[in-house]
Amino acid sequence: MIVYIARRLLLAISVLFATIVLTFGLFFTGPAKDGVAYQICGTKCTNQKVHDINHSLGLDKPVVEQFGTYVKGLVAGRDITNDGQVTGHCDAPCLGWSYVQSQSVTDQVKQVMPVTFAIVFGGMFIYIPLGLLLGVVCGRNRGSPLDRFLVGASQLISATPYYAIALLLNLYLIFTWKVLPATGYTPLTESPGTWFKGFIAIWVIFGLFASMTYVRYVRAFMINTLSSDFVRTARSKGISERTVVWRHALRATIAPYLTLIGVEVALQLSGSIFTEQVFNVRGIGRLGLDAISTNDLPVIAGTVLVGATFIVLGNLLVDLLYVAVDPTVKLT
Amino acid sequence: MTQTTTPPAGEPGTQRRPPLDPNAPVVLTVEDLKVQFPTEEGLISAVNGVSYQVKAGQTLAIVGESGSGKSVSSMAIMGLHDPKRSRIGGSIKLDGQELVGASQAEFRKLRSATAAMIFQDPQSSLHPFKKVGAQIAEAYLAHHKVSKSVAAKRAVEMLDRVGVPNPDRRAKQYPFEFSGGMRQRAMIGLGLVNDPKLLIADEPTTALDVTVQAQILDLMNDLQREFGSAIIMITHDLAVVAEVADHVLVMYAGRSVEHGTAQQVLANPRMPYTWGLLSSVPSLTADVGSDLKPIPGNPPSLLNLPGGCSFRPRCAYSDRVPDNRCATELPEFLEVPGEPGRLSRCHLADPAAIFADEVAPNLE
């Protein structure tokens, strides 16, 4: 088990290294690299000015050297220089130094992560049980009016762009009907009550939307499992149908469901841009989006790397959890 | 189709079976059982009026190929057909209780307690994520008001009785840690944990290694002697019939076509379908390279069964019946004169003679 985790972590590091090389390569050698200078000097840019700015930021150094500095910063931290002058220090893991904000990317990510975590993990409390519950009910009563309604609704909702639904619900539930309190981020440490209130609508709307996909997954798993031999054996024991469904069939459904959720959660952690944009809270998705619009290369690369880290760790976590729910799987 | 022993035709003996006790109490009486499944294409008639009886301590083998209705009729006894998707008619009397029309709650009370079922594939029939001991204990707990530890002890005891070595340790293992034969033993232990009056075994040896098949059949014979249960053995394997059955019911396309003691049916079958079954058993003494003799054709679709005898399209003897009766008239399931309990469904005037002259010499 420990050997397995160590091996997986090693693998994770190599995946992340590849991500670094790719994002770094794409942004710092591609056509976007002069974008920073243009962002700064705007219409007054001359070739000389662009060159000067690039020089002051160290962007004219060989790419390999820049990359070396970047990786060193990730591992050990580094000084930030402007025109040869040390202007700041970026602690490890240094994800870079934002051109626009004059701040370390790591600090920026740290500022927005509580928002993203709150959205993703809070939403989980809604969609995991809801998806499971509705999925089991549908799978058990396949073909019933309730099943048809839920499957139809879930298909319709999943087929509609999330931002459209989120915007509409945001508009009606919060502003027109005032069923849910307005959203906004207050740090948890400042006022837990306000923090909670600012997230309620996000959790409900995001959770409901996300659960719609899972309803159909769980329903399909359930239908499959309910016709399996071991469920027939369970029925032939003389135990109640409720026990058969919730203890036997569901037990076998949990493992694939978990895999699904784990991968999805990792994706959400790496950027729930729509949710943040629609509900006006700033998480890692918005951070990345803003960086793209201002050509803030270090921030873009930093958010990509953080996102990739979540996905890699999420997959590892799924594998570990899988061992807990499926005794036939041994990690070696 | 795998065989456990040499073809049974030459040794239709039931030496392994104790002599039949005519006074044994009747455990199960099935009369004119019909099981139908309404589908979008039409009504599927999986079982079309089957009748039989099983007595305590005796084994009835129900023989037939896939789709003959042998499993479907037995699942009806357990109430395992979804009431919303099936129609069941006729009468099933288990231990005096009428089961056709019984509620799920009534079925729940007798499942495992009065009638238990062992399934074909022990690999898929046990819950993959639950410990074997716990799975057996659960069935005991469903019918006994005892503590979990008492039930767990009972589970270990059952594993011991069905010949699982180290039952204490094995009870705490998962099915995937068992071999196929051990899993089926555990399955039998699960079936017998509540000492049921009737045990239905649905092809319990089909998914097993040939060497393990015989062990499992021996075990079932031993346990039947010990527990005194009535057994319904569903199989397509005539070698299994020779090994364990007292009586045989041959089914074809949802109908019974032949019934009698194992001795009678194996030695003097009176229906061309049974002859086909016997002839298709691979022989150990035949020349190497000689072809297997399958029954030509396929079983009919159970959707809108044709009139007449269902076996007619595959029957090589139907032209010996005058007036094309095989195509127009369903033969009745009639008792053979002078042999009570011996029934067959065939228009042939003297099937015994045809079997003796034309079929039997080609067996072996």
TrEMBL record, chain A:
Keywords: Cell membrane, Membrane, Transmembrane, Transmembrane helix, Transport. It is a multi-pass membrane protein. GO terms for biological process: transmembrane transport. The chain crosses the membrane at residues 9-28, 115-137, 149-175, 195-215, 257-279, 299-325. Belongs to the binding-protein-dependent transport system permease family. This is ABC transporter permease. Residues 113-322 form the ABC transmembrane type-1 domain. It is found in: Cell membrane.
From TrEMBL, chain B:
Residues 1-23 are annotated as: Disordered. It is a peripheral membrane protein. Its main location: membrane. Coiled coil: none annotated. This is Dipeptide/oligopeptide/nickel ABC transporter ATP-binding protein. PROSITE patterns: ABC_TRANSPORTER_1, ABC_TRANSPORTER_2. Keywords: ATP-binding, Cell membrane, Membrane, Nucleotide-binding, Transport. Signal peptide: none annotated. Gene3D superfamilies: P-loop containing nucleotide triphosphate hydrolases (3.40.50.300). One of its GO terms (molecular function) is ATP binding. GO terms for biological process: peptide transport. It holds the Pfam family ABC_tran. The keyword Chaperone does not apply. It is found in: Cell membrane. Belongs to the ABC transporter superfamily. One of its GO terms (cellular component) is plasma membrane. The keyword Hydrolase does not apply. InterPro entries: AAA+_ATPase, ABC_Ni/Peptide_Import, ABC_transporter-like_ATP-bd, ABC_transporter-like_CS, Oligopep_ABC_C, P-loop_NTPase. Residues 28-278 form the ABC transporter domain.
